[in-house]
Every structure is written in C-alpha cells, then in structure tokens.
Specification:
This protein is an alpha+beta fold and about 60 residues long. The protein contains two helices and four strands, in the order E-H-E-E-H-E. Iron/sulfur cluster (SF4) binds next to helix 1. InterPro entries: 3Fe4S_ferredoxin, Fe-S_cluster_ET.
C-alpha cells in the first residue's frame, strides 16, 4: 500500500510523524515529508493508525 497527503488539508501538527516516524517527517520549516513508494509491511499498521488519527483527514491509503 501507499499513503498520500493532501497538503491543502495538512496543518503540520506532526501527529502522523509521532505515530509512524519512519514514514512521516516534519522538517525544520514544518513541511511534512512522506517516504516515497510502497509502505514497508512492518510499517503498515502504524501508517493505518496515522491515517485514522490525522485530525484533518489529510492522509489517504492508496
Ligand atoms: S497528522 Fe495529518 S495534519 Fe498532522 S501532520 Fe500528519 S497529515 Fe498533517
């Protein structure tokens, strides 16, 4: 699976990065970066949790 971010919705609060830090990262300018490509199998449950917890519903599983 893959995950995408709607940057029009994301408010860069870092909740996803707290849940799945290997996949989501906030840089020094509060810009969210997402690991490219397929989510590693051992990261899938954390990514799904991040999608569920995003308060802006900015994350989508593909
Ligand atoms: S949890 Fe949602 S709003 Fe917060 S940084 Fe991640 S994608 Fe953006």
């Amino acid at each position: 699976m893959k995950v995408s971010v709607d940057f029009d919705q994301c408010e860069a609060n870092g909740i996803c990065a707290g849940i799945a830090p290997d996949v989501f990262e906030l840089d020094d300018e509060d810009m969210l970066h997402v690991a490219e490509g397929e989510v590693a199998p051992d990261q899938e449950s954390q990514v799904a949790e991040a999608v569920a917890q995003c308060p802006k519903a900015a994350l989508r599983l593909l």
